[in-house]
């Protein structure tokens, strides 16, 4: 028997396993994927959103708690547990030293169009390097790691955790951390969550999965069946507009289309449907997948002119290029006259201003719906470019309701030895929306808390057993 079993193999699971091992517990970590694909969605991440009251190593200026909280409040629309959110925010300021101790390296501050040099610390080598560093540290510390071991059952004695099973294998432990992700790779569950739209379509059939194919939601379903307290809307997720040519799984960051705020986005009817310049891109990129999901065919087109080239992170695939809007419409299969009118009406609505993509500038539209609030420049300088986009689901927000100790509950009763971290409890902080890097903040903070609490629970059981036998 192990002291702690950690179910999952991504950032939150690794943070839990490392922390529990540091506390002296024997730890078993069960990862569903083969070794080559270990790390879940964390292998596709790039950065951690960090609170800081002044310049710190790779972070410039300051990003105080209240500003971080207001950013989170805005994107979630208030669908967040403020106490837990503020805990994550405060703890995010204390993560980097611990991460560096386990081999994670950070790169110098970024500049340019991402606007995150002040708020986010970027991993040297990206998420794959972070995951590999954690696994090396875990191996060196003696964490027992089993790959290709998907957990499909959890055993309880009342609300007390007893064991997990993977097929015929049974793993008993004194405590457990569930960090096995959401259900974004489970197409049938996505279909149930989204249902049919007014056109009779099943929107989820056209979703692409930006991350791992191994997040099937099996552990979450086991917990739901066991009567665990659940939080979140199953249709809410980190859902990004990504290149429609992206692979079904594991496209990652490079498939995201980042020129949305520099042009217009139209649906298959060649009509705009949302304010492309509502706020800075890192605070709005994760709403566009859901917006596209609500359009016919779950398909849209991000259109820019040559003025935008060089102002955004280039995507992995080249866009469709044309010298006129008419030619562009023909190439991407949209009604020519409608797209010409949409672009003409947008151009006419653009008001004179001082364009500055690094601030919320005064370039906006007037007399048009939807408005474009910032960075509204006429599309008038050929060549023109179009990028077809589809919804790309990163992770889902339905999960286990937890407290500040990462404890799992059953009808309001706290389990004495079961904890949750990462995507499976992110819905406590993220009811909807997203802002860049906060998922890694949630996973890192709750992972470390869950690992600490699981080690304490295991130690307490050891003491109780020792006292009983004395």
Structure explained in plain terms:
With about 475 residues, this protein is of the alpha/beta class. The chain folds into two domains: about 1-180 and about 215-235 and about 395-470, FAD/NAD(P)-binding domain, CATH 3.50.50; about 240-390, Succinate dehydrogenase/fumarate reductase flavoprotein, catalytic domain (Flavocytochrome C3, Chain A, domain 1). It has twelve helices and 18 strands. It has helices at about 10-20, 65-75, 80-90, 95-100, 125-140, 185-195, 220-225, 280-285, 290-295, 325-330, 335-350, 440-470; strands at about 1-5, 25-30, 45-50, 120, 145, 155, 160-165, 170-180, 210, 230, 235-245, 265, 300-305, 320, 385-395, 400, 405-410, 415-420. The strands form four sheets. Strands 1, 2, 5, 6, 7, 8, 17 and 18 form an eight-stranded mixed beta sheet that branches. Strands 9, 11, 12, 13, 14 and 15 form a six-stranded mixed beta sheet that branches. Strand 1, helix 1 (about 10-20) and strand 2 form a beta-alpha-beta unit. Helix 3 crosses helix 12. The longest helix has about 30 residues, at about 440-470. It is elongated and about 85 Å long. The two termini are about 20 Å apart. About 55% of the residues are buried.
State the CATH superfamily name of the largest domain. Answer: FAD/NAD(P)-binding domain
Q: Give the strand content.
A: 15-25%
Low-confidence stretches: none
Remind me, CATH topology of the largest domain? FAD/NAD(P)-binding domain
Number of helices: 12
The helix/strand class is alpha/beta
CATH architecture of the largest domain: 3-Layer(bba) Sandwich
In total, the number of domains comes to 2
Which term fits the overall shape? elongated
């Amino acid at each position: 028997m192990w002291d702690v079993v950690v179910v999952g193999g991504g950032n939150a699971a690794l943070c839990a396993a490392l922390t529990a091992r540091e506390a002296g517990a024997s730890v078993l970590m069960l990862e569903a994927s083969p070794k080559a694909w270990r790390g879940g969605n964390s292998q596709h991440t790039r950065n951690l959103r960090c609170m800081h009251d002044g310049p710190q190593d790779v972070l410039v200026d300051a990003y105080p708690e209240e500003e971080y909280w207001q950013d989170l409040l805005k994107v979630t629309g208030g669908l967040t547990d403020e106490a837990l959110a503020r805990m994550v925010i405060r703890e995010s300021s204390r993560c980097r030293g611990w991460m560096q101790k386990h081999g994670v390296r950070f790169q110098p501050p970024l500049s340019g169009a991402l606007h995150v040099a002040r708020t986010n610390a970027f991993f040297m080598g990206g998420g794959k390097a972070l995951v590999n560093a954690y696994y090396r540290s875990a191996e060196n510390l003696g964490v027992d790691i089993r790959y290709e071991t998907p957990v499909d059952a959890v055993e309880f004695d009342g609300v007390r955790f007893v064991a997990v099973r993977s097929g015929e294998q049974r793993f008993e432990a004194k405590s457990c951390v569930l960090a096995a992700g959401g259900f974004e790779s489970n197409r049938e569950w996505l279909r149930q969550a989204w249902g049919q739209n007014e056109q009779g379509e099943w929107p989820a059939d056209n979703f692409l999965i930006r991350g791992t194919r191994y997040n099937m939601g099996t552990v979450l379903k086991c917990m739901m069946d066991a009567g665990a307290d659940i939080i979140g809307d199953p249709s809410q997720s980190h859902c990004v507009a990504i290149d429609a040519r992206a692979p079904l799984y594991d496209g990652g960051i490079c498939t995201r289309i980042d020129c949305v705020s520099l042009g217009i986005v139209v649906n298959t009817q060649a009509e705009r449907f949302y304010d492309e310049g509502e706020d800075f891109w890192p605070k709005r990129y994760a709403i566009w997948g859901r917006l596209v999901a609500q359009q016919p065919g779950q398909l849209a087109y991000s259109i820019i002119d040559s003025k935008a080239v060089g102002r955004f992170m280039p995507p992995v695939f080249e866009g469709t290029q044309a010298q006129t809007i008419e030619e562009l419409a023909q190439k991407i299969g949209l009604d020519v006259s409608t797209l010409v009118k949409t672009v003409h009406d947008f151009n006419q609505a653009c008001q004179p201003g001082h364009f500055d993509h690094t601030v919320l500038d005064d370039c906006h539209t007037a007399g048009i719906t939807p408005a474009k609030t910032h960075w509204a420049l006429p599309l008038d300088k050929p060549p023109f470019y179009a990028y077809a986009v589809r919804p790309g689901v990163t992770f889902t927000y339905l999960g286990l309701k937890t407290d500040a100790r990462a404890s799992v509950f059953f009808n309001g009763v706290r389990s004495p030895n079961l904890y949750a971290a990462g995507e499976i409890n992110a819905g406590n902080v993220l009811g909807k929306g997203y802002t860049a890097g906060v998922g890694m903040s949630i996973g890192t903070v709750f992972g470390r808390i869950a690992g600490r609490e699981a080690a304490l629970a295991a130690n307490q059981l050891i003491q109780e057993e020792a006292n009983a036998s004395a």
